[in-house]
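Allow me, if you will, to draw on your knowledge of protein folds for a short while. The matter concerns a single protein, recorded as an amino acid sequence and a row of C-alpha cells. Kindly check, if you would, that the fold set down in the C-alpha cells agrees with what the sequence suggests. You will find the record immediately after this paragraph.
***
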Amino acid sequence: MTATPKSGSPEPQVSGLYSPLFLQGLYTTLEDCLTLTSGSVDLERLVALESRRYDHAPLLDANRRVVGVIYTKTARERFETGQPLEERDAELTWVHEHTTLDGLLTSMSMRRAVLVAGDMVDGSVSTPNLVGLFTLSDFNLHTFRARLYSLLADLETHLAELMQVVYDDPWTWLEWLPEGQRVGVVGSWELSKRAGVDLSPVHALNLTQLVTVVASSKELRGQLGFSSRRKFDELTGGIPDLRNRVMHPVRHLVMRQEDVTALHKTAAAVCSLRDIVAGVLAKMG
C-alpha cells in the first residue's frame, strides 16, 4: 500500500506505538483551514464550514493568532442568538507534529479535533507554534493507513518466520486452516513449485491466516508465552479486522470517537505481539 503525503515529503515509517510519528502530510495546515475569528460570527465563513460538513474550525483572535478549536455548531448557536464568539468558546488542545502513534491516539480518543504544533516559538516551551488541524477524518487518509500497514507488515513477517523455524513440515500447520483456505494455500504452493520456485506455503498466508495458525498451535502459543488460546485471542482478536480495514481503502478506519479507542487497543496489540515474536526469534538465534 502506498500513499502520497499532502506535503509531498518522504513517507516516514512507524516502528512502534511509541516511535516518532511525523504528522506532516496527515493534518491540514492552518493556511488551508477555514477559520473563524472571535467577535461577530462571519456568516459567509460559517455557511462555508457547514456546506463542507466541517465539524470544527480553528478560532483566531483579533490579531489573527490561533486561540483554539471551536465547534461549527457552537458558531451557529452564537449567530442565531446574536452573540459573539469568545476565546473561551474554543479548546486549546494540541499535539506536536513529532508525536508518537500512542500520543496521537490518546489525544484523539478524548476529542474530535486537535491543533498541531511545530517547533516552539523562539525556543519557548510554553508557546506552541500552531501549524495545523488534525481531525477524526484524517485517520482515514491513505497516508495514515500506510503507516499502520508498516506495523502489520512487520508482524506478518515475524509470524511467518516463527512458523518456518518451528515447523519443518508445513503439513503440520496446514490442517489448522479452514478447508477452503487450505486448498487455496496448497494450490499456490504447487503452482510456485511448477514455476521452479519452491517457496514454503507460509508465503501464501495473509496476516489473518497466520494469526489463526498460531492461535491453533499449542506449541507456538507456548513459545510466545500464552498459557491458553483464550489469552492469545484476547490480545489478537481485533487484528484481523484492522488488517482488513487497512488493506481496503474504501472502508473507514475511524467514524466515531469509540473507533479511536478500539484502534489504539488493536495497534498496541499488534506492536506487543510483534515484539514478543521478535524476542522469541532472537533467542532461537
Q: What stands out?
A: Strands lie at 28-29, 36-37, 56-60, 66-71, 94-96, 113-118, 129-135.
